[in-house]
Each structure stands twice: as structure tokens, then as C-alpha cells.
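Troubleshooting log. The previous structure file for this entry was overwritten by mistake, so regenerating from the original sequence record. Sequence copied from the archived sheet and checked twice against the printout by T.R.
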Amino acid sequence: MNINWFPGHMKKTRELLQKNLKLVDIVYELIDSRIPLSSRNPEIEKIVHNKPRVVIMNKSDLSDPQINKEWIEYFKKQGVNTVLVDAIKNKGISRIISETNDAVKEKQERLLKRGIKNKPVRAMIVGIPNVGKSTLINTLAGKKSAKTGDRPGVTKGKQWIKLKGNIELLDTPGILWPKFEDQEVALKLAFTGAIKDEIMDIETLALKLIEKLLILAPDKIEARYNVSTENKTALQVMDDIALRRGCILKGQEIDYSRVANILLDEFRDGTIGFISLERPKNI
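Regenerated output below.
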């Protein structure tokens, strides 16, 4: 599979980030806990430069808890402030606020010496599509301030939103990068839903996902679908799952489109289990 996706709005988003960076005190970089490296956009690194930053590992409820700890330690050694978050269940939100206050403490103290009190901290949130930005913003705001959806591309334009802790947040649409030089990275983004399924061959994508899970978590496939994975190819496992789930067309042919959607949906919502596709030891 050759995956490449760079809609026009993403180019505009990059220009928007560059234009508005001077308006904020801190940047929240939101990444997917299942793929912490693959979901870090190198374009954002170039744009943000030395601006204070907090890396937020969202969807921690879908990834392996032990591997989450390994990533926190990994980023800590790099001097990166990192917070583990489950935005839907409101876990880790208070840590974001405390990390924000620590990061801008010196600037706030300088403002106070000049007689400027209670000036809101202005933050920008950036990240790839479908990483949970809108859900996180609504949780931080304590109300529905941003549109949410389980598909990439829900957030379309710039908006300022008041958050808890005297913080004002500039929301931006998700941004990928112009070209995926590493197709392994592109696959991981596709597995987690960062790339629209509409432009993908989902049957091949689901087969690739099974190949990955046979390496990382064959026991979870067996437990979820009541199939054996021993000495079987990914296609054989996919066929067995299809039979178990009744994904059969007329003439007893496998309905690969239907079983592919089941596999992708159940991986993405954590039904198959807590699975991390990357871990620091493999870097």
C-alpha cells in the first residue's frame, strides 16, 4: 500500500500555525498513546521551535498500560514534559493545567512585576487528525466548545476557547505532513484512523493490521474472535474471523469489506484489547 494524503486544508493549517504562534504562550502537542512516535508530526516540530510545549499522550485507555509508562520515561529522558491522558474519562486533565502553569511561570512572574495580574495563559493545541483534540478541549473547558467526531477532519477553522485554570486555547484542525516517506508510519496512522478510510483499501489495511497484531498480540486476537493463530497467515486468520462473525456473501464467499470494518472498528475502540503499536525498546 502506498499511502499519501495531504488535503488543501492541511497546507492552510500549517500556515495558520506559523501565523498565530506568536499569539500563544505554550503549545499542547497531542499524540496518540498507541503510536507516540508515528503520531508526532515533524512539521509541528519545525514550526513550534523553542516555544514552551507539553506533549499530551491521549487515548491512553486504548494502549498498553505498561508501555505507556515506558513512553513517559522515554520522553522524560529527552526533557519533554509529557502527560498521559484519557480525555473521554477526564483522566490526566489536572496534570495538563499544572504542567501549563509550570511552563509559563517565569513569564507570569515578569508580568506580575509590571503590575499585570490574572492575564490568561494562551495556548495552542496541535496534532494529527482524529487524535482526540476536540474531546480534550471540551473536557478542559468543562462544556461542549468544539465539535467532536470519530473521523478525521471534523475541526475546520481557528477558534479561541476559554478553559479551566485561566487558560485560553487556540484550537486548530488536525495536520498531517505532505509526504509519508516511511510507509510503516503511514500504516500505523491508517490503523488508528488518522487517515480517512474513504481513500484507503480497507480490506488490505485490515489484513496489514492482522499481520501486525499476530506479532504484537496474537493472544488478544484469539480471545476476542475465538480463533487459532498458530502457524496461520494473516489471510487465514481473517477468513476464520469472517466465518465466526458471519461475514459471508451468497455462494459462501467471504465478505472481506464487512470483516475489515469489524476488525478496524474493534481495534480502534479498544474492543480487541489494550494494544500499543510502538514501544521505546524498539526504537
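The chain has eleven helices and six strands. Archived copy saved in two places this time.
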